[in-house]
Amino acid sequence: xxxxxxxxxxxxxxxxxxxxxxxxxxxxxxxxxxxxxxxxxxxxxxxxxxxxxxxxxxxxxxxxxxxxxxxxxxxxxxxxxxxxxxxxxxxxxxxxxxxxxxxxxxxxxxxxxxxxxxxxxxxxxxxxxxxxxxxxxxxxxxxxxxxxxxxxxxxxxxxxxxxxxxxxxxxxxxxxxxxxxxxxxxxxxxxxxxxxxxxxxxxxxxxxxxxxxxxxxxxxxxxxxxxxxxxxxxxxxxxxxxxxxxxxxxxxxxxxxxxxxxxxxxxxxxxxxxxxxxxxxxxxxxxxxxxxxxxxxxxxxxxxxxxxxxxxxxxxxxxxxx
Amino acid sequence: xxxxxxxxxxxxxxxxxxxxxxxxxxxxxxxxxxxxxxxxxxxxxxxxxxxxxxxxxxxxxxxxxxxxxxxxxxxxxxxxxxxxxxxxxxxxxxxxxxxxxxxxxxxxxxxxxxxxxxxxxxxxxxxxxxxxxxxxxxxxxxxxxxxxxxxxxxxxxxxxxxxxxxxxxxxxxxxxxxxxxxxxxxxxxxxxxxxxxxxxxxxxxxxxxxxxxxxxxxxxxxxxxxxxxxxxxxxxxxxxxxxxxxxxxxxxxxxxxxxxxxxxxxxxxxxxxxxxxxxxxxxxxxxxxxxxxxxxxxxxxxxxxxxxxxxxxxxxxxxxxx
Lengths: 322, 322
Known about the structure:
Two copies of one chain form a homodimer. Chain A is built from 14 helices and seven strands. With 322 residues, chain A is of the alpha/beta class.
């Protein structure tokens, strides 16, 4: 079986789209052999640039990503991968609707691969699943890999951790100036892009964003600070996409010049290991084995009113020798 | 110290708002003694009705909740509690902005208590924090407790688990019919309320919702199925709020008649125990103690490239005797 998986990874690395699609599905189902094989290859593989695109619903992220993909393809990128993460969608991996609706203009371009991921159906959580998907695309030679996250909330901040450069997309619609300037979003932005900039209010929003960015925490003394550019674009017409691509390049250069990329990726790897471990423990709580047995026992005691929930958790930790 | 906490809980149960506010802050900071005291009292306390209100941003949830609170207060509810959960807000407990902006019309009503909760600053996660807040409000005699969740995504589905009855609020604005009819939202709806029903498209949206609801999974054979009513309202004028209150009452009666409330709450308690345990384990991974030491050791091996991430996690589980 492991040999089958090794062969699948080889086919995928040779550029066979069908092998890539199959591997992605296996990864989403938590296939242990495929994932072990992925881990083994991934340790030595070069890592492509990862660009995150996030922002509130209706900001036109998909259209923007589509325009960016077009720009990258025209300007020399051989293979561009897109991972569209929608934590609010209940559909499972390889989501039918998403892949088809999104970026239909690239449907005939073999140099573009789009994968949609939804909240459910991801063994080990969405963040871990997104990381696996990015790594498989990397092995298949896609560079850059663009991770688009739909939705607002914690998820987008977590997902931002998978990218080297994060673009926050906003629009000058009513209410956004308050909603979007939340520190959580501002903190993750490497580039702020005001989309639909032909609508009234774009300059005002740019001012608000500028003020919001000034409130960001400063890096430790001696460390260089990146100033996120605030761009305006109209993704539907392609206006401003050149400037976006340049800003992405500038950020990549800044990261490389200051040797920040390695640190970013190391932090990402650490966060991922913690995610994987936490997910495995959470699963072990509900499964067979010593930890699951002990938890089931404590849960029965809680249900019979013999012990309070938090006291049960304390006893569980004691079991672990903590 | 435990005696101080016991006294605080007594003051809170005697209706002292200041004690409640203090206890909420302590709970949000993960104060172990306060939480133990809460657990002890909560086991025997009667549980108030919990109403969840959720939906996409801009649906007018806050205005709706405000109108519902007014209706409940006029119709005999002595104390109404509101927990406003905003997973996209970075502000910590007792959020300044939220409490003030929201429901300012109830600011002078001592029978209404509003607490805002944001994504960060909650020891043990937002879902666990929301549960603690609801329980403290229950001990202080607030009934019903309304949990309003702002945002889209996984969080709202999780938060829906804290309510006995969940109202999904939608609006007839463009795009919503696709965005909002996601199965994830439809599955959690006990009542669907189309707000801003004076705008064009409300009837059309109601039709879409009806179709969406027909796709829901059926309960096991023999179990009664609740048909979520689809209501229309204009929260700003109060139109349709009577009907909403009636629908909430009908659902409560249905749950009671079919003895479903106990099962719902049991399921909620189980989910909560799992949440608490998973959060504690995740924290233990990063802390001192046997589990944290082992994890730190494995992490170092991963960073030195001696072992792949998933292999490290497998070894970690072995340590636990799984």
